[in-house]
Amino acid sequence: MLTENENINELFNFNRSITKPVAIIGGGIAGLTAANFLKQKNIPFILFEAGNKIAGLAMSFKDKDGFSNDFGAHFITNRLAKAIGLEKECKTVKYYGESVWINDKSYSYPFGLMAIPRMSFSFLKSGLKRNKNKTPPGSIAELFRTKYGESLANEIALPLIEAWSGAPSEQLSAAIADSLPKSILKTIYLKIASKITGRAVGCGYNREKPELPSVWHVYPNGGVARLCTKLAEDLDDSIRLQSPVKEIIVKNEKAVAVTVKDEQIDVSAVISTAPANILSKMVNGTDAFERIADFRFRPMLFVNMRFNKRNILPDTVLWLPEHQFPFFRLTEVTRSMPWLAPEGKSIITADIGCEKDDEFWNMDEEKLVTLCLKKMTAIFPHAETQFLKATVLRTPYAYPIFLNEYEAERRQFENSTKIENLLSIGRNGEFAHRFMEDIYWRTREKVESLIKKMSFNERNRFYSVSTANELAK
Q: Do residues 302 and 273 share a domain?
């Protein structure tokens, strides 16, 4: 029997014997995390990125006027920054808060909402029902009404879920709640810890690692995209930009090659960050992905507006469940990260859920910005006079929609693609509601498992050949 050191050495030698590269599809944080991990383990790989630069939805932008913003409002933790090696390049985020706008008034989360009698009474009443009802909820609507009470669910939680997903809450899986904080008491504890420490303690952003008062939000110099450039250091020779993967060839339920620019490249495995439903169209040679093609994503518009004023919103994030607004969330990142705008100025991002080719998606940018400003006057009366300029970002794959009609297939796909050497990682790849730090840790874990499986198979192949040779003698 081999000792532990001999096993490690043997595993390393088998890793070196893997001569065909692992193909990584996508150069966002998930793909680069996988590439960085494979580099550490001395396993050959090629990362194929369809665009002309890395980062994907983690891109950062800075204009000539000194305004900076990311593709969406990203918040990362000191724990993630340290893991990637950026802890000395990050600023501490000292404050982060969320509020809800209902009936022309702002209520902080969770304390302000708890002070509304009908909300707190409804929540307490639902607690009695929770203790009696042992039947698993059939939808997110049923879960929220049971968990939070009719008032909070119907007035706030469910309208926001529907605006975010674009589907009726009765048709959505209760699994959406898996990405939300599990305990009101834990949320209160972390909020209090944030006030005491003077740091924006992470709350509701981690599932793979514990949420603790010692884990807080930070922001890298150069923007969130800096995480990707750090992960990509020393990987230049293995990254191919403007190289979309057209096809993944599967034989005997194993990925054996990819087609890139009409070139077929033999591979030992494939790690994909492509949206799950797009991946299903790329795979050729198996019917394992047939149902995955039905998975739906929510397109999103992000309207980044600059203002000649600061601290416009009541909190960093303002949720708007009422249908009078075209946006369901406003984020004033400069309340938490003032360095993203010149002194006295601010950036507010409006999130608008839509469908490709609908009214919002096709709306002229100037008209879209004008609409957002007009609706914002209910919250900030001087929105139109203090406005400076805006940019509009569009993405057809913002959030996975957890429809009950394919919930069983979604859960199975989250655990396995059914192809032993084909991983689907990242939020869009796994079709899961995951935040940036969770993507990092989960990707490393899944890639490590893939390496062990590859090495195990290689070891078995080696011993099978050796045994056959011995018998032949």
A: no
Percentage helix, strand, coil for the chain under 3-state DSSP, each rounded to 5 = 45, 20, 35
- In 236-316 the beta strands, taken as DSSP E runs, fall at 239-240, 245-251, 254-260, 263-266, 269-272, 283-284, 296-307
Predicted TM-score (pTM) of the model is 0.92
> Using alpha carbons only, what angle is made at residue 341 by residues 53 and 426, rounded to the nearest 5 degrees?
35
Rounded to the nearest angstrom, the gap between the alpha carbon of residue 442 and the centroid of all alpha carbons in its chain is: 12
Q: Per-residue DSSP letters for 174-198?
A: GGGGGGS-S-HHHHHHHHHHHHHHT
Cα torsion through 424, 428, 433, 437, rounded to 10: 70
CA distance 340 to 212: 27
Last residue of a domain, one of 166, 190, 220: 220
Residue 296 contacts residue 355 (beta carbons within 8 Å) = no
- Which residue range is the domain that position 308 belongs to? 60-68+296-401
Return d(Cα 122, Cα 118) in angstroms, integer: 6
* Final residue in a domain of this structure, among 192, 220, 248: 220
The Cα 10–Cα 4 span in angstroms is: 10
Q: How far apart are CA 427 and CA 51, in angstroms?
A: 19
The first and second tokens of residue 140, run together, are 């997110």
Distance of alpha carbon 203 from alpha carbon 215, whole angstroms? 9
Three-state SS at 241: coil
Residues of the chain above pLDDT 70, percent: 91
Question: What number is the average pLDDT over the span 209-236?
Answer: 95
Residues 71-129 pLDDT 10s: 865 779 999 999 999 999 999 999 999 999 999 999 999 899 989 999 999 888 887 66
Neighbours of 308 (CB within 10 A): 13
Q: Beta-carbon neighbour count of residue 307 at 10 Å?
A: 25
How many residues are there in the chain? 473
Instruction: Kindly report, residue by residue over 365-396, the tens digit of the pLDDT.
Output: 999 999 999 999 999 999 999 999 999 999 99
Q: What is the phi/psi pair of residue 460, to 5°?
A: -65, -40
| 340: its two tokens | 């993203």
Cβ atoms of residues 272 and 424 within 8 Å: yes
Q: Could you tell me if residue 83 is inside a domain?
A: no
- Domain check: are 256 and 178 in the same one? no
Q: Is the peptide bond before 400 cis (omega within 30 degrees of 0)?
A: no
